[in-house]
Fold this protein.
Amino acid sequence: MAVKAESIAKRYFRKTGGANYFYAVKPLTLEIEAGEVAVLTGRSGSGKTTLLNILSGLLAPTEGKVWIDSTDLYSLDDKSLSRLRGERIGVVPQGRSAIDTLTVLENILLPAKLYGRPLPVEAASRWMERLDIANLRDARPAELSGGELRRMAIVRALAQSPDFLFADEPTGDLDDENTNLVLSAFRDYAHEQKKAVFVVTHENDALQYADHIYKMDGGQIM
Amino acid sequence: MTMKHFSLSLKNLLRKPGRTVTLALLTAFLALAVFGGSVVVLSLRSGLNSLEARLGADIILVPSEAQSKVSFQNMFLQGTTGAFYMDAAVLDKALEVEGVEKAAPQTFLASLKADCCSIKIQVIGIDPEKDFTVQPWIARSLTRELGDMDVAVGCKVEAGMGEIIRIYEQRCKVVARLEATGTGLDTAVYCNMNTMNALLAAAEEKGVSHKIESGDAVISAVYVKVKDGCDIDAVNNRLNSHIRKVAAVRTRSMITGVSDSLAGVSRTVTLLIAAVWALAFIILLLAFALIIRERAREFDVLRLVGASRGMLSRMVLLESSLCGLLGGLIGVGLAALLLFPFAQLIESALKLPYLMPDVGKALLLAAGTILLSVAVAALSSVVAAYRLSRIDPGTALREGN
Amino acid sequence: MKKQIVPAIVVLILSIVIIIGSQTFLSPCVHEDGSFGPCHGAGQMLLGLGCALGVLAALSLCVERARFGVYLSSLPVCVLGILTPGMLLNLCRMSTMRCRMVMQPAMIMLFSAALLCALIGAILTARKKA
């Protein structure tokens, strides 16, 4: 079980400037295996988030292919790709990602609910307990702090038991204690349940939990 | 679309009550106009049809002094009382005229206001054997003939079956309540000629004179049916020249007058509906565009957790349809609360025959209006839903940051 | 707390409309010669019921202790208001008369709305007690 990126690149058209396009991600090849935590670091604007979006099926690359096992991700139509994302890929995005009209628990169970899968209530409770937000299950997102919202998003991704977990700056709003809580949860998830975890971060704390470390600069992996 | 999405949409609506109610009220406005307008137009149409059916005659003969067509027309359209008399011999003279197939007399009498109803009531005497205009209508509610001192009352006269009403101190028994016609006929009381003669005599004693210079027997109008194939205008002219002091009036002119007014009202209502429709549609279109922008982050999240473009579009359509449904129900409900209890007020204000649709028809119309509201609400969110489906989830997330 | 007095305020407004209406725009028929029609009694009764309803609504606003009971006692007053025109007391004998065309439907609607509000008020106050 693996995600394989084969000579992928993302090119954007530029409205001004000399060249009429620029590369956010320059052609690169990358493989993330199950059972491992891969950490991608790099400065702001180095293309980390773009790469994560491409790998997680959210953003089509302009060149190359992304394989999940033997499936060419971007050859799928939107419906199949969405279903595959919902079933096998978990994403923790940057910023707020809660639906305000739902409670915390409802937000966490949303991915399963969308496709009418059995609700992973037990897994949700377990992860909420572990990340210390169990007391917030019936709260509304508006009542939560930034760190709590972030952990909610992480539980939402973990509770679905995705084969591939992608987290974009998951510890950005967290204090040291919670940062360690989250990163150890990722490591245990990858190692014990044999899943692939891909974390984008600029914090050095994350490096000690990593099985693989990638560094990105100017759209290239160093 | 599974129940899961339905419950998600429902939660979205319930937990943003302000937004939901605003959208619903916009559609309610539309539903109110459509339902209200169409009920009024429909009622006017059935009123006209009913008037045509009840007139049933091609030509009406009245004394020339009553010929001021207006007063006669008012009797029919608005039920104002009138009394005018001519020699009963006019009936036989009319039957002699070439082209006349049938002729039937009617005699009118206005009751005293103090008598029964604190209002003057139009009493109409008919000859059940000869009458071909009112009798078929009475026969629908009364299987036997009107006996002496029996009366049939129009639906707007509030007197129950078997009740005794007094007209010029004469006791008359209500033996039938007639179906609504939406015309002035609904406010009248009907009796046979014997009863009418007794009432005329009683009125005479009270000092209400109906005497004419010649003859004892009096009638007020003769309804004439022209033989098939005969030119009605020609018969009309012959009647006018053959019988003295009598005016022949074509019923067509009366109906044309009504149908002209009806066309005017219909046009106004249609314009009004169209204007409200267009306005509501544009406002809804803008509202949905704004709401979708406001909810961009929410849709990004849904995309993130695996919702497909189709799912999002369906969710938006479902939510807007539910708003439309709610709005339709509110609008139709409000319209019904105004239209049905105050039907009589509307009729009096319009001064035209006005016959409300029956329950079945009204329900059908209500269902149609609600369906239309749902369709309009859904349609106005289609653009927003389509634009939503074009956004790449990754791009959207990037833009959200 | 706030929720409980909203129905009382609405009922108070409705009763004021009923009282003013019964004397002006919702009045029973008056003949050209100034004499009263048979609907006059119904009009007087509606005025009385409107006053009673207004007093009850004012009571439920002022006396918090009595609120639940006052809401409940408003219910029969409203029912009487609905039944008065045409059923308990006579109106004129013609649908085209003012009392049947305007007063009856409007009064039935006003008293029905008041009934609904009093019912909601009663439910809200009962819930708080429980």
User: Anything to note?
Assistant: The longest helix of chain B spans residues 251-294.
